[in-house]
Amino acid sequence: MQEQQNVITPEVVAQGLTYDGYQALVREAVAQGKTTGLEQSDFLAQVTKDNLEIMQRTYQTPLQQDLVDLVQTVTRPQLWLVLTEGWCGDAAVHVPVLAAIAEQSPNIELRTILRSEQPAVMEAYLTNGGKSIPKLIALNAETLQPLGSWGPRPQVLQEYVLELKQQNLPLPEFIKKALGHSEENNGQALQEEFLHLLPHWIRGCMA
User: Fold this and answer.
1) How many domains does the chain have?
2) What is the pLDDT of residue 183?
3) pLDDT tens digit string along 9-24?
4) Among 14, 35, 61, 68, CA closest to 194
5) Which of 31, 85, 110, 191 could connect to 102 by a Cys-Cys bridge, CB 3.0–4.6 Å?
6) Full DSSP string of 101-137
7) Is 79 a domain residue?
8) Domain containing 73 — which CATH number?
């Protein structure tokens, strides 16, 4: 745990973008025929263009009232730092919903950082040994002490993706099926998980 606390420094946080800033970064990349970050290819540029449309849809995801009520009970400042990239389909589906949730409380600040530009943070928050994104790291905003993490997708969608991987599908077909399943869920599984996670993070800020 001590290592994770040291990885996320004020300098790392200062490099983070608001969700609006991240959206603008993705739009600019698409306008230039590129993607975000240090890894560039024609394929990544194309999926980033597709993801921009997904981001615009998923930001409108209806939020459950019980989750909104819970978020509004947050009294100690939290920082939600999200590792992401414009080419990541899971980020396009989930990061806008995370941003919409964070916006329900003046005491939650969401900032995004790029996976390719923050390798030390990514290494500290691997998923089953992989650099899966999006990855949200919840922090005490005053101390940068980690409260917990979430990602890259809700468990029920993670299980579906693992099943898809067993089918050895061509990459475009795999992406289409995985994202289609996630979009059909319409942010509901993510919100259910946050109903369970957020109370722990609230208590962690009180400690």
Assistant:
1) 1
2) 86
3) 999 999 999 999 999 9
4) 68
5) 110
6) HHTT-TTEEEEEEEGGG-HHHHHHT-BTTB--S-EEE
7) yes
8) 3.40.30.10
User: Per the domain annotation, does 193 fall within a domain?
Assistant: yes
In 10 A of CB 119, how many CB atoms?
11
Q: What is the dihedral of CA 58, 63, 69, 74, to 10 degrees?
A: -10
Percentage of residues in the chain having pLDDT higher than 90:
86
Q: What angle do CA 47, 123, 132 make, to 5 degrees?
A: 30
Kindly state the tokens that stand for 40: 């560039």
Q: What is the pTM of this model?
A: 0.93
Q: Is 178 inside any structural domain?
A: no
CA atoms within 13 A on the CB side of 169: 15
- Which one, of 90, 96, 26, lies nearest residue 59 by Cα? 96
Among candidate residues 83, 86, 151, the one with its CA nearest the CA of residue 121: 83
Q: Determine the 3-state secondary structure of 2 from DSSP.
A: helix
